[in-house]
């Protein structure tokens, strides 16, 4: 299930980026939605790697990773790596932006809620 969530998250991120401009939303909507979805994706990958992990622990790991990446942007390393690689730019970003920290927390909270809901459904045999 975590793999499906990861793929759906990537699709949602691409959809938000493409769709925000089409419906007249500013670029900041796509940017901050992308920040939240980044943490959702990280949590899905954490759950994929450790399927028995509890939702709050997975959310904390995903949030810590997202914040670590953001704070790393205070150095020149991510920007330099991003200039050399599209993958590095997607994973590490390049420029520190304090509001991103809030949106990572929003993504972690959403992922925690969905993870908890899916886990409860699995326990009750709903899927």
Automatic annotation (TrEMBL):
Transmembrane portions of the chain: 101-118
Presence of the UniProt keyword Transmembrane helix in the record: yes
Top-level division of the source organism's lineage: Bacteria
Pfam family, one: DUF2809
This protein's UniProt keywords: Membrane, Transmembrane, Transmembrane helix
Protein name in UniProt: Membrane protein
Species of origin: Streptomyces chrestomyceticus JCM 4735
